Amino acid sequence: MPFTPKKHGFNASVNEVTLGTGDKAVTFGGESTFPFYSFDAEAKHRPIIGAEISDLGYDDETEGYKAFFGAADVVERAKKAAAMDEVAFICLHFAAADPFGANKSTEDCIAEAKAVADAIDKPLVIMGCKNIDKDTELFTKISEALAGKNITVMSAREESYKAIGASAGLAYGQKVSAESAVDINLAKQLNVLLMQLGVSPKSMIMNLGSAAAGYGYEYVVSTMDRVRAAALGQNDTQLQMPTITPVSTETWVVKESIAEEADLPDWGPREERGIDMEVTTAAASLAAGSDAVILKHPESIRTIYAMIDSLC
Amino acid sequence: MALKGLDIFKLTPKKNCKECGSPTCMAFAMKVAQGAVPITKCPHMGQDVIDQLSEATAPPMKTIEVGTGDSAHKLGGETVLFRHEKTFVSKNLFASTICSCMDDAEIDAVLANIKKVDYDRIGERMYSEMLYVNYAEAKGADAYLNLVKKVAGLEQVLILGVKDPEVAKAAVELCKEKKPILNGADASNYEAMCNIAKEAGVVLGVSGKDLSEIHDTVAAIEKLGNKNLVIDVTAETAKETFANAVQLRRSAITDGDRTCGYPSIVNVAKLAGGNTHLQTAYAAMFVLKYGSIIVLDQLTYAQALPLCGLRQNIFTDPQKPMRVSPGIYPMNGADENSPCAITVDFALTYFVVSGELERSGVPVNFLITDAGGYSVLTAWAAGKLSAGSIAKFITEEVQDKVKSRKLILPGKVAVLKGELEAKLPDWEIIVGTTEAIELVNYMRNNFK
Asked: A131, A303, A305, A309: best mutation site toward chain B, by most B Cβ within 10 Å?
């Protein structure tokens, strides 16, 4: 007798959200199964990949990265990354804006964001410097400057959701990513707060928090597992936003990716370690339920695209 | 299928003799059904009934043992699909691959890599636990048997990838004492392969062209009395392979189909061809979703570092936090005159804080004190991290080894400063940052 495994489909689904405008706008989310469970139901959209372009640290990048991009200029790098078929959106990372670091001015950041937005036709995602006050100012003003572009601002957090939700989400019609710290209850609470503010769930995505593989990654997996189970199994509309996970910003700062071969000859070339760490973390994020991952190295981007392509 | 309490009750003597420790046979049956007591507690059960019930009350997924001595490993035995529901019990094992189609230099390179990539991470040994030995028909049986002979003495558990029963029999003879896996049964040869595996007492790997064929073959082998199996779920494509792995595990655990309840082998080397980064990506996915044995071309250092770290995270028991050993960890070339920074022994705290300290580039003696494996605030609230415990640690373990008398305290326990100053009068107690992420700037600004 032929064996037919039972299907475990759901009647609920993750929200569909569209980033960007024009021909290269991308819609993601929409799944009604656990990630890549195409045997339960075909997914409406594939998970997507964003390329992180940071305004800091080009000199410390690996040889392969520099060989691909050729120059430190942010706009040029954004154009090169956007030209990759595997890349669905560009994540412009204002690491230099940190007031305790390079303290790049908000005006300079706005000018750079505009220049990048003008140079590419793919959707733009803005990532801050993790300083809440500076980020709030950046997200608000860049949202204003790029009104109508349907950009996404990463990280409306518990401390900043009001200002960012009101400006980016309500006044300028951009997409808002709600960032919480690997806990389903915190994620839900922040979504509720943003919705109470009047931000439409269709304008929201979630960053459930991230970590590099080996660095408490079990919390990330379990949070994503539980969020997807609640979104589909209980039709919890407060957890049905698609999930975006910054991977490169977590993986390229851990020892495995920064230790020089000269110091640890057994470990081999740094670039290989960095790529494998980025690829491992991204693959695990996707398998746990990320709808979008943000990566940095072109080889990681190609690899993860090939993986997604082979599973959909 | 799992039995209900009432079904078990029908098989009891119904004498209410209380010899099992339960007040009535009914109460006993209910406890057995929940898995609270073993059926053998009842002294009046016949052997045939015990056999029948042990089978029916067995866990949904079998635990399969491979290897011997220090190289013995358990596979399977999982009871949940998601780690937050309970815990995963048998971590995935990684296998490197050799083949009789390779020349000696290639084989030696794989073996040398296995020796090299072998290290400790938070008290757990990380290495390629298994070695997949693939049979290339074109090279003949002798080449394969010589290869098996060459590696039979290694501590790695061998997986013999061979479908020809004659070659399989000879290969198993060479290494059966070390409990390898014979991965070669399919719909065409399962009777012969089953006999070889049974006689030699080794685990048999079963494969098939699709799930239905795999299921039929496993059922047929079970009928021959062999349940010491693993299922090779590797298909032509990654999509099918993933579907096989997930559906078998789910059918066993959620739908109670015991024929699906065996550990899996996933050959990501086959799926990704020579693309090592793609192998890494697939391996990471199968660490999460139901690969019991993950076969790679080889487990390089670059792959092992993230993959073994991921595995360690996923298979950690949510009730037992991972801990690092208390002690002094000099960072960035710190010596006895470098300042000290202290935190707790919770592995995640250690990793996050040590990463940031390292990035700061400032020499510092990183001190880990015993706090029961809790995070800073939890340990403080539970009384495991106090001025008393820190002072004791500094006096007994640190004072004689370090000349600096500067101690940086986690910002979250700034409240301990006064009491510590009283207990450690020689020391300057400095309140550090609340979040690890602020450490880089803090260290550079204050201690460079």
From this structure: A303
B264 Cβ neighbours under 8 A, 6+ residues apart: B230, B231, B232, B233, B244, B245, B248, B249, B290, B291, B292, B293
Whole-number mean pLDDT of chain B? 92
pLDDT (average), residues A130-148: 96
How distant is the Cα of A289 from the closest Cα of chain B, in angstroms?
11
Q: Is A194 buried (19+), middle (13-18) or exposed (0-12) by CB count in 10 A? A: buried
CB A280 within 8 A of CB A213: yes
Is residue B440 assigned to a domain?
Answer: yes
| Residue B2's pLDDT band (cuts 50, 70, 90) | low
d(CA B273, CA A84) in angstroms, rounded, equals: 23
Residues B77 and B45 in one domain: no
Split at pLDDT 50, 70, 90, the class of B5 is confident
Residue B55: is its pLDDT beyond 80? no
C-alpha A259/C-alpha A281 separation (Å) is 18
Asked whether the beta carbons of residue B83 and residue A277 sit closer than 8 angstroms, the reply is no
List, for residues A37-83, the tens digit of each pLDDT value. Answer: 999 999 999 999 999 999 999 999 999 999 999 999 999 999 999 99
| pLDDT of amino acid B1 | 42
Which ipTM score applies to this complex? Answer: 0.97
Provide the CATH number for the domain around residue B231: 3.20.20.20
Q: What is the pTM assigned to this prediction?
A: 0.89
Contacts of B355 in chain A (CB under 8 A): 215, 253-255
> Which residues in chain A touch residue B1, judged by CB atoms under 8 angstroms apart?
none
CB-based contact (8 Å) between B309 and chain A?
Answer: yes
Contact between A28 and A292 under an 8 Å Cβ cutoff? The reply is: yes
| B320 occurs within a structural domain | no
- Select from B118, B301, B322, B359 the residue whose CB has the most chain A CBs within 10 Å, as the one to mutate to test that interface: B301
| Closest residue of chain A to B308, computed from CA coordinates | A214
Q: How confident is the model at residue A2 (pLDDT cuts 50, 70, 90)?
A: confident
CA distance B333 to chain A (A): 12
Q: In sequence order, what are the beta bridge partners of A54?
A: A93
Chain B from 15 to 44: CB within 8 A of any A CB: none
Rounded to whole angstroms, the Cα distance separating B358 from B356 reads 5
CB-based burial label for A133 (10 Å; 0-12, 13-18, 19+): exposed
B305–A273 C-beta distance less than 8 A: yes
Vertex A191, ends A186 and A195: CA angle to 5°?
A: 150
Q: How many CB atoms lie within 10 A of CB B85?
A: 15
Residue A7 maps to a domain: no
Nearest-Cα residue of chain B relative to residue A251:
B306
CA dihedral B272, A46, B252, B30 (to 10 degrees): 150
Q: Is residue B322 part of a domain?
A: no
Whether residue A96 contacts residue A72, with contact meaning beta carbons closer than 8 Å, is answered with no
Return the DSSP state at A163. H
- The parent domain of residue B280 ranges over 63-314
| B254 lies within 8 A of chain A by CB | yes
